[in-house]
Write a structure and sequence with these properties.
single chain; Rossmann fold; 7-stranded parallel β-sheet; 23 strands; binds glutamine
Length: about 550
């Protein structure tokens, strides 16, 4: 039976609960514990797959094809926890299950209510996290989305209250993450909102064991610590100050210095092994002390939400640290290439170009122009999902002289649908959970840059898309455009093209899958790593003539 840690948030959203949960997971692993991670999200969407990433942040995909909240990306990058459909549960998912059971008559004529039926369903999902292959979990860390006091999160908090009671006398640990605003006129951090938020939590019947105070650039002083301890009924040593630190991989080290993992183990009544954080410290050190600098352009439609491509940004950071360089990763709006600006002038000073995932036709023509420049100029290029589709459309148009080639996503009537739907995707009406999702086996081609990057013949990478490379154009693209198919997914009669390269180009790889979802600071993803390596090599050649 695992021990349970619950992470709640107070005062405002975006206080960094996800990173706190992930950091604690990482620290407990460093003590020899096996952890499981879970996020409970209080919105009605059955999963975040149908939510706009430009508002909500990226949709993170697991091996088994769950479309999940971006906090699971933090769990993946900080811990070794196995993430799956079980790791992210929403209010919509809970209600969906309860309503289906009601329709099947499983409640035996009872009135179906929030308490006990919804709360029972929540508790059963929490228990389910650590069954089957995860039954040897030592600690399960459950993050509750939203902020204490929200109407939406009430059923989750009530379920946790019951869960704690049911587990008694086995202790659980509740960590409340809050914000202490700094008031300039008073020259101090204010504890009142935290007091209120903890009061709201205690009203529900949950007493936090540890309070983590986000304090922006300020230090948490002894006075505030004393006040919070007294008003919130928590011992002073369990009040942890979490000042902003950079990079994010330094956060667990900061929390460790203040005793977060020791405190959590004490509350849970468990003893860990001696801790060794050398590897993690080395990561932070490498990020902080780069030996070189390069510039990479991300060409895409303007999005204005940093979290929309969270995993790609992090994969670039991991690739940068593997190459001991700092990457200035800059966003280049592709729509400007449709309005007079040229890729030549805007991209020439960059050492590499990335075209990332996306949906919808805005900015597509501009991306195709950028892809042409990248192919012809020999700039290192990484295409991810839509980025691969763009590269293929560009080559079909310009090397095969089929100027109307397109993806049927953008032009359903194109005479040359070089990217199109497989028959099983045609006629699908439901948008939720119906794309090609999750990890697929990919067989790599010998003597390609892809094979060299991975160092293996068979890899598994995660997908999230509807459209595919159309094999009808494969032979001509190989013969006339220099396209190299460097990875395929074999399936019966029909193989799916998963990754392509370009003959004679210094470094050009574009994958239909999303390599960013498997990148971690301890194991930088091979394609991202070699892309940055090629960009750095280009920069060095330029510098030294
Ligand atoms: N819109 C494209 C598709 O559905 C690409 C999706 C993506 O980039 N994730 O196939």
């Amino acid at each position: 039976m695992p021990k349970y840690v619950f992470v709640t948030g107070g005062v405002v959203s975006s206080v960094g609960k996800g990173i706190v949960a992930a950091s604690l997971g990482m620290l407990l692993e460093s003590r020899g514990f096996k952890v499981a991670m879970m996020k409970l999200d209080p919105y009605i969407n059955v999963d975040p797959g149908t939510m706009n990433p430009y508002e909500h942040g990226e949709v993170f995909v697991t091996d088994d094809g769950a479309e999940t909240d971006l906090d699971l990306g933090h769990y993946q990058r900080f811990t070794h926890a196995k993430l799956s459909q079980k790791s992210n549960v929403t209010t919509g998912g809970i209600y969906n299950a309860v309503i289906q059971k009601e329709r099947r008559g499983e409640y035996l004529g009872k009135t179906v209510q929030v308490i006990p039926h919804i709360t029972d369903e929540i508790k059963s999902r929490i228990r389910m996290l650590t069954t089957e292959s995860e039954s040897d979990t030592d600690v399960a860390i459950i993050e509750i989305g939203g902020t204490v006091g929200d109407i939406e999160s009430l059923p989750f908090l009530e379920a946790i209250r019951q869960f704690r009671l049911e587990l008694y006398p086995t202790p659980c640990c509740t960590i409340h993450v809050t914000l202490l605003p700094y008031i300039d006129a008073a020259g101090e951090l204010k504890t009142k909102p935290t007091q209120h938020s903890v009061r709201a939590l205690r009203d529900i019947g949950i007493q936090p064991d540890i309070i983590i105070c986000r304090t922006g650039p300020h230090n948490l002083g002894p006075d505030q610590r004393r006040k919070i301890a007294m008003f919130c009924n928590v011992t002073e040593d369990a009040i942890i100050g979490a000042k902003d630190v950079s990079p994010i991989y330094a956060i667990p080290l900061n929390l460790n210095t203040q005793g977060l993992d020791t405190m959590a183990m004490r509350v849970l009544g468990i003893e860990g092994q001696p801790q060794d954080l050398t590897e993690w410290r080395a990561i932070v050190e490498k990020i902080l002390k780069p030996e070189h600098e390069i510039r990479i352009a991300a060409v895409g439609k303007y999005v204005g939400h940093d979290d929309a491509y969270k995993s790609i940004n992090e994969a670039i950071t991991h690739a940068a640290l593997a190459n001991r360089c700092k990457v200035h990763y800059e966003w280049i709006d592709s729509e400007q290439f449709e309005n007079g600006a040229t890729p030549e002038e805007k991209l020439k000073d960059y050492d590499g170009v990335l075209i990332g995932p996306g949906f919808g036709s805005r900015g597509i023509e501009g991306k195709i122009k950028a892809a042409r420049y990248v192919r012809q100029s020999g700039k290192p290029f990484l295409g991810v999902c839509l980025g691969m589709q763009i590269a293929v459309i560009e080559m079909t148009r310009n090397c095969l002289n089929l100027p109307q080639a397109n993806s049927t996503e953008f032009d359903p009537a194109t005479p040359d649908p070089v990217i199109s739907l497989l028959s099983e995707q045609r006629g699908i009406q439901d948008m939720g959970g119906t794309m090609r999702l999750g990890a697929y086996r990919c067989q790599l081609t010998p003597d390609t840059k892809t094979r060299e990057a991975y160092g293996e013949d068979i890899i598994y990478e995660r997908h999230r898309h509807r459209y595919e490379f159309n094999n009808a154009y494969r032979e001509r693209l190989e013969k006339e455009a220099g396209l190299v198919i460097s990875g395929i997914h074999p399936r019966g009669d029909h193989e799916l093209v998963e990754i392509v390269e370009l003959k004679g180009h210094p470094w050009f790889c574009a994958s239909q899958f999303h390599p960013e979802f498997t990148s971690t600071p301890l194991r930088p993803q091979p394609l991202f790593r070699d892309f940055v390596k090629a960009a750095l090599a280009g920069r060095m050649r330029e510098k030294h003539g």
